[in-house]
Amino acid sequence: MSLRVAVFASGGGTNLQALLDNFNTHDGVARIVLVVSDRQDAHALERARAAGVEAVVIPVTGRPIDYVSRETLVTLESADIDLIALAGYLRLVPPAVVRRYRNRIVNIHPALLPAFGGKGMFGLRVHRAVIESGAMVSGATVHLVDEQYDTGKIVAQWPVPVLPGDTPEALAARVLRVEHLLYPAALEAVARRLERGDVPAAHTVRSGAFTWAAEHAPAANDIRRALGLD
Ligand code: GRF
Which residues are catalytic? Predict the structure, then answer.
């Protein structure tokens, strides 16, 4: 039986789409069965509906955290959710939800954590900060979610070069292509560990795993191999 996954998204949902394309097109270790957004106008909700997945709005702005927390827990429990994937969700997950789903919530961040993360570090701000720092390597990180922004244990990372003359937009696009390959593979690795009764720990990716192909993206196969999936 597949693990039941909820994806939380505030925006366009291209990572959600990558997850849907990977998990909901065949029977596997996990299936996306619920999409939650804090925003009524999030395009991610339309992607969910188009894929036949239940889409729910849980507003956060101007509501006491206890209300949000309770509504979120009821929604997750009534959908029998095993695992949560944040995909461009711009809110802090309420502490009671983190406690209930400890080690069962993952997030993707468009840089190599623990650098360039934390409150307010989202979207183009991340890539601008990377370029301004002079860093030559950025990347994507999948990590477990704890009570703070971007501080949970790292599950998988993939480096992406910062090229001379890069704009934040160009770097964002390069990193996003890797996110779409890394996130499904990392979520699959986490789901397999949970299925075996293991806690998804750090260092899912073997060190030194780095391929940057001629067409400027790693091959999905390289990522899957690095995550021990093939
Ligand atoms: C991604 O860059 C992700 O790393 C970050 O938010 C962005 C979401 O993009 N957490 P999308 O909505 O999946 O297109």
Answer: 109
Pocket of ligand 1 (CB under 6 A): 9, 11-15, 87-88, 108-110, 176, 179
Say how many CA atoms lie within 13 Å of 118 toward its Cβ.
4
Does this model's pTM top 0.70? yes
Question: For atom 12 of ligand 1, which residue has the closest CA?
Answer: 13
Q: Whose CA is nearest to atom 6 of ligand 1?
A: 88
Tokens standing for residue 101: 């789903």
Which residue blocks in the chain are alpha helix, DSSP H? 14-23, 43-50, 65-78, 95-100, 124-133, 168-195, 220-226
Sign of the C-alpha dihedral, residues 101, 51, 215, 111? negative
**Chain centroid offset of residue 88 CA:** 7
Q: Considering only CA atoms, which of 83, 96, 131, 108 is closest in space to residue 14? A: 108
What digits encode the pLDDT tens for the residues 174-225?
999 999 999 999 999 999 989 888 776 544 444 334 444 444 556 677 778 7
